[in-house]
Each structure stands twice: as C-alpha cells, then as structure tokens.
Amino acid sequence: MKNFLLFILFTNLIFSQQKETFVNANEKYNSGDFVSAIQKYNEIIINGDHSPEVYFNLGNAYYKLDSLALGIYYYEIGLKYFPNDFNLSQNLEYLNHLTIDDIEALPFDIVSKKTDYIFNYFSLHTWSLLCIALGVTSSFLFLFYSLSNSTRIKRITFTLFVLSYILTSCLLFISFKKYNIQNNFQYAIVFDETVEVNLEPNNNSEVLFELHEGTKIEILEDFDEDWIKIKLADGQIGWVIKNQIKVI
Question: How far apart are CA 70 and CA 62, in angstroms?
Fold first, then answer.
C-alpha cells in the first residue's frame, strides 16, 4: 500500500511538472519567443507526453519561424498518435497548400478508401487497447456463462460472448494490419529547399525531377549509406540523398 501511494505521488508530480512546462511553453509562444517555446515543447515530448496540443503548438511555432518542413513534420508526427485530431489535420492541410510541389495522388477504389478510413480512424495504441479491453470482456462473459445456473442468463451471456469474440477478432485483425502498415510503410518530409530525384543511387545518374521543401514521400528502400529510394503519391519513383529528408 505504501509503495502504491508513493507511485501515485510520483505520477502526480511528473504530471504537474509536465503541465507547468506546457504552460510555460505557451507563455513563450504567446510572447513571440518561438525558439524558447520549441525547446519547452520538445522537453515535454522527450519526457513521454504525446498530447495533440503539444504537436499542434510545436508545428505552429516552427511555421512562425518560416520553417515549412518542420511545421509539416510535427503535424504529421502528431497525427500518427492522434489520427482524428481536427486541428492537426486542418493545419497540415493548410501547410500542404503552401508547398511548391503539386502531386496528385493515384485514385483509390471504394473498398480501399473504406478500409483505409477504418485503419486510420484510431492510432495503433488505441486499436490495441480496444482489442485488449474487449478480449477481457469476452473472457468474463464466458466465465459467467460457465458458472451460471440460470438458463436465461446462460443464453444471454453466451450470445454476448459470441458477439464480443467476433468483435475482438475484428479488432485484432485491424491492430495487426495497422501495425504492418506502420512498419512496412515509412514516410518522410523533404527538408532541403530543392532536392534532385535521381534514376539511380549515385550523383552521375539521370535527374528525373525535383522536389521541394515540405513534400511528403514514401520510403521504399533504405539500404545505402547515402541514398534512399522513394515513391511519390502519384507513383513516381527515384533516389534521393538521405540527409535531404527527415523520416516521420
């Protein structure tokens, strides 16, 4: 009991410190000291707080400092944790309109759009928690069904168990799919003002086209020390120098 109380006190202390840092960062931001505000927001993230407000304000601060790429980068990071946050999505859309490259994404069929919407509705962490919670509920329902002597209660608990088991299976599938998407599909933001995309991973190869600051790209291969194979939303593929981009 004593150890539990100490844990609660320690947790409250950490939360209080994080809240104080966030308030202090906002004060710096509101006074126009964006560099100091960014330092404070990064402190919060390093300490494990991934709230949407922190990423929203961090992206805003970088945008105020005319860093389009970093603004987009932190909105994108925030949306990895909180895919349904309206403020992050709205500001990201605004900054994307400011980028030079106008890349039209390949069309999706209706099924792909629907499944993509479902997988991105929550973060992987949230999908996993929902799956665990429903799995525990299924176990308790089966336990009640096994121990009950009432036919009526057995019928109800068994029906609920079957439904929760099916839902748990669906959530487990979504969680694994979301995990695979996050691990097999990696994206980055172009950070240099202008980046040449080459046909091959060397400086002497043909330059296919150019990309500019803030453009989002998909990483296909990262086996070379200096070069990364990338893909655009419109399907174009090429190689760029690694230190010209920042992985999300």
Answer: 6
